[in-house]
Write a structure and sequence with these properties.
The complex is a heterotetramer.
Chain A: E1 18-23, E2 35-41, E3 44-51, H1 59-63, H2 68-75, H3 83-97, H4 104-132, H5 137-157, E4 166-167, E5 170-171, H6 179-202, H7 205-211, H8 219-225, H9 229-233, H10 241-244, H11 265-287, E6 308-315, E7 320-327, E8 335-339, H12 341-347, H13 349-353, H14 358-368, H15 372-376
Antiparallel strand pairs in A: 1-2, 2-3, 4-5, 6-7, 7-8
Helix pairs in contact in A: 2-3, 3-4, 4-5, 4-11, 4-14, 5-6, 6-11, 11-14
Chain B: H1 3-13, E1 18-21, E2 26-30, H2 35-44, E3 52-60, E4 65-72, E5 79-86, E6 93-95, H3 104-115, E7 118-120
Parallel strand pairs in B: 2-5, 6-7
Antiparallel strand pairs in B: 1-2, 3-4, 4-5
Chain C: H1 2-26, H2 56-80, H3 82-109
The chains are: A alpha+beta, B alpha/beta, C mainly alpha, D alpha/beta.
């Protein structure tokens, strides 16, 4: 066991014994198979020790035996809520390596699908966030709106969640004829529903009471732990890859990066809600003027990347996702490393949750929005 | 500052290291013994100020094991790649940088778990994903005929 | 006449509960394995033992709750006989509440309700 | 335990299961009542590992609505659940946990393997060193629902098949309910 740091607990009553409890692999609030060994004193959390590996499937070793189009089918099984962005990362990395430029049409469609995936992911986060705080109604509101996005995905990409819509050099097929109409209808519908989310949860006194000032993550800690994405931006860590290293159609879009300096769980909640509004405005700017053009380039069947190292960073709904390919000229990569956003966000949990109650630990962890296969790969 | 400015400043500040302009970023390969001291310098000097370790990758090359650090400075917005090699394959050992960047503590545990690279004076070097005694799967010579179904 | 209704009520309770327990112990299949009788801790074997020393705050809260729970139990028979008891009954219940209110005030001032 | 009267199955969607010797009219109707009660109140255990868990959640939400089959109460602890839906991959570190959870479930318990990963390792079948190739190496599985991830409707169809399977179960008479042994294939060592 790692050393349990002595926390001086000032209490005029008799001291309590410390004991360790497993918020184990099968737990409603870990959203997957993450095991937290929590050292408790009564209800106060002294030390949280994440034990991962219960869903480790060795994807990086598998990718060393797959060709590049095949790898794309695995990346959307890692962070399955931002599947399209992870696929796009691999596709962009291969395209940069082969110095190939995709048409504007592909860039526009990729960015629209990115933002739709971000909306769907934030909606599911909002459902489960409410459930973690004990409000079961958010589950049905959020998933009701998410189903409509999944219908749009299914019509265009054929799959609801693990879309695999990207290939190196473009898209698998063109968008469905009434894709634009359905997206515009959906945006009109969802703009009336997002205020409903605020009425249901944002103004709720119990929710504010449970998240205000809980789970404090200072800016230095956020940078040091590498906490990216909305969780990092809520502490003022400006790390939006769409802004700093724009890719696909993000240079043509005007949107602002949402930063918040309150560093607590409520700030992380509000950053995500505001990001949903940003995603809607991004899609609106793009959906009407998708340029004409071919949806995929003529690529050789087996792509051989030149020797060298290629790194591509993409902003998923949870943070910065990086694909690092070391290629030695053959048809499959020599070494492929995925920089997963959840991995760094998870290990900042300990110094956020120290000293809080166990119920606050659950609230903090759900504002971090962790996906466990993204951590274990 | 841009890549080539960074390259010139790095070559003049660290003459002992070999620096070259990679495909996207400046790559600096340092010797294993002065890795820690260079890492502290890269973080503390205001000119570089690399305070964000993006990711730490372990690679198993035929002749040596290599650790690749991707560093970014939030203040200056420039990115750099730091590499360190060790030829010893039986028990490779590299100094830890977890006191410079806290996130390295867990990335190093992952590199130890999957590649077997030991990090000296790392506070809590345990396996992250696999059970003890499993072997190091990401090594090229890893063979496991019971669990892996070859294609 | 009164006691026979009570008897029927009592017998019905016994037979129904007995029948349900008999049914559920014989009809469903039972698989005997060692893991089934260990405490469930999210799928991991429990380490150490849960017989620990807690803050005394839990005990204080429990006792205070118990007092006011029993108070409401005394309220039920009064509520049934409220019509016939008239004003005198009402004054008696007020005195009863006042005494218990004093108890609550005492607990409040001695910080029994404060958690930290 | 011979098969006395070989009944002809009219509806062809019944998987062919040899009929056990069972009780007479009185016990058969008691059987029907017990099976009817069990099959219409299958409480699933929240056991999601990978993307199939999200499809399992949208099956519980308002559009696909598991509640129509009495299965919407997803319990968190195995003590109160009688249906274990394995949604996602099981790796070698998770296998003993899954076995322990299955053992700690109250009887009668049923298992649905949801998605390709739970059936046979799915996309992780080839050259993955950490994935158990199918959950039936660890615990006996009643219904397999293919798909990666399967649509919520596919999961509901699997649920209906399980309900049919439960309706044919014989609880009384001379039936011995012995815990079915998991099929341990020689290739994988647990």
């Amino acid at each position: 066991m790692s050393e349990i740091k002595e926390v001086i607990v000032k209490t005029d009553r008799m001291a309590t014994d410390r004991y360790q409890v497993n918020m184990g692999p099968q737990h409603p609030s870990t959203h997957g198979v993450l095991r937290l060994l929590v050292t408790l004193e009564g209800e106060k959390v002294l030390n949280v020790q994440p034990h991962t590996g219960y869903i480790h499937s060795g994807i990086e070793k598998m990718c060393e035996a797959l060709t590049y189009p095949q790898i794309i089918h695995l990346t959307d099984r890692m962070d399955y809520l931002s599947a399209h962005m992870s696929n796009e990362a691999v596709a962009l990395c291969v395209e940069n390596a082969l110095q190939v430029e995709v048409s504007d049409r592909v860039k526009y469609i990729r960015t629209i699908m990115d933002e739709l995936t971000r909306l769907a992911s934030h909606q599911l986060w909002w459902c489960v966030y409410g459930m973690d705080l004990g409000a079961l109604t958010t589950f049905f509101y959020g998933l009701r709106d998410r189903e409509l996005i999944l219908d749009i995905f299914e019509e265009t990409c054929g799959a609801r969640m693990t879309v695999s819509y990207n290939t190196p050099g473009g898209l698998m097929f063109d968008i469905h004829p009434n894709f634009q109409k359905r997206v515009k209808d959906y945006l009109k519908y969802f703009k009336t529903k997002l205020p409903e989310y605020d009425e249901l949860l944002s103004g709720n006194v119990i929710m504010r009471e449970r998240t205000e000032g809980i789970g404090y993550l200072t800016l230095e800690d956020a940078i040091d732990f590498g906490v990216t994405g909305p969780s990092g931006r809520a502490s003022g860590f400006s790390n939006d890859i769409r802004k700093h290293q724009p890719y696909s159609a993000y240079p043509f879009v005007k949107f602002n990066e949402i930063l918040d300096h309150r560093c607590d769980s409520l700030a992380r909640y509000e950053v995500r809600i505001k990001e949903m509004w940003e995603s809607i405005s991004i899609i609106e700017q793009l959906i009407d003027n998708i340029p004409e053009g071919d949806y995929a380039l003529k690529m050789k069947g087996v792509m051989k990347l030149p020797e060298g190292e290629f790194y591509q960073r993409v902003e998923t709904a949870r943070g910065e996702f990086g694909v690092f390919i070391i290629s030695d000229g053959k048809k499959n990569p020599y070494r492929l490393k995925f920089r997963s956003s959840g991995f760094s966000n998870l290990f900042a949990l300990n110094n956020m949750a120290k000293g809080h109650k166990i119920a606050d630990l659950v609230a903090i962890m759900s504002t971090l929005d962790l996906i466990i296969p993204d951590i274990d790969r | 500052m841009t890549n080539d400015e960074l390259k010139t400043v790095l070559t003049e500040r660290f003459p002992a290291a070999e620096i070259k302009q990679g495909f996207q970023y400046v790559e600096m390969t340092v010797k294993a013994e002065d890795l820690h001291e260079i890492a502290v310098q890269l973080k503390q000097t205001d000119e570089f100020y690399f305070d964000y370790l993006i990711c730490l990758t372990g690679v198993d090359y035929p002749e040596n094991m290599e650790i690749i650090y991707h560093l970014e400075s939030i203040k200056h917005r420039h990115v750099m790649v730091l590499k360190v090699r060790t030829a010893d394959r039986v028990n490779p050992a590299i100094d830890t940088v977890s006191d410079v960047w806290i996130t390295a503590k867990y990335h190093e545990r992952e590199a130890y778990d999957l590649l077997g690279i030991h990090f000296n004076n790392h506070t809590d070097l345990r396996r992250l994903f696999l059970e003890d005694g499993w072997g190091f799967p990401l090594r090229k010579d890893y063979v496991d005929e019971v669990r892996i179904v070859e294609r | 006449m009164e006691s026979s209704a009570l008897l029927v009520f009592f017998l019905a309770a016994i037979t129904l509960v007995g029948l349900a327990m008999l049914f559920s112990s014989y009809v469903p299949p039972t698989s005997k394995n060692s893991a089934k009788f260990e405490p469930y801790e999210c799928g991991i074997e429990t380490v150490g033992d849960a017989w620990l020393q807690y803050t005394v705050g839990y005990y204080l809260f429990a006792i205070l709750f118990l007092i006011f729970d029993v108070e409401t139990i005394f309220l039920f028979p009064w509520a049934i006989a409220m019509r016939t008891a008239g004003i005198a009954g009402f004054v008696e219940i007020l005195i009863f509440f006042a005494i218990l209110g004093l108890g609550l005030l005492y607990g409040w001032k001695k910080h029994a309700l404060r958690w930290e | 335990m011979g098969i006395k009267n070989k009944k002809e199955f009219e509806k062809n969607d019944y998987p062919i299961i040899a009929e056990y010797e069972g009780g007479g009219i009185m016990l058969a109707s008691l059987d029907a009542m017990v099976n009817w009660a069990r099959s219409n109140s299958l409480w699933p255990l929240t056991f999601g590992t990978r993307c199939c868990a999200i499809e399992f959640m949208s099956a519980g939400a308002s559009r696909h609505d598991m509640a129509r089959f009495g299965a919407e109460v997803a319990r968190a602890s195995p003590r109160q659940a009688d249906l274990l839906v394995i949604s996602g991959t099981i790796n070698y570190k998770m296998a003993p946990v899954l076995k322990r959870l299955y053992d700690q479930m109250a009887d009668p318990k049923y298992v649905i393997a949801l998605g390709g990963c739970a059936i046979s390792g799915g996309p992780f079948f080839y050259n993955s060193y950490a994935i158990v190739k199918g959950a039936d190496h660890i615990i006996p599985v009643d219904v397999y629902v293919p798909g990666c991830p399967p649509r919520p409707e596919a999961y509901l169809y699997g649920l209906m098949q399980l309900q049919k399977k439960i309706m044919r179960q014989k609880n009384f008479g001379k039936v011995k309910y012995s815990e079915a042994k998991p099929i341990i294939s020689d290739k994988t060592s647990i």
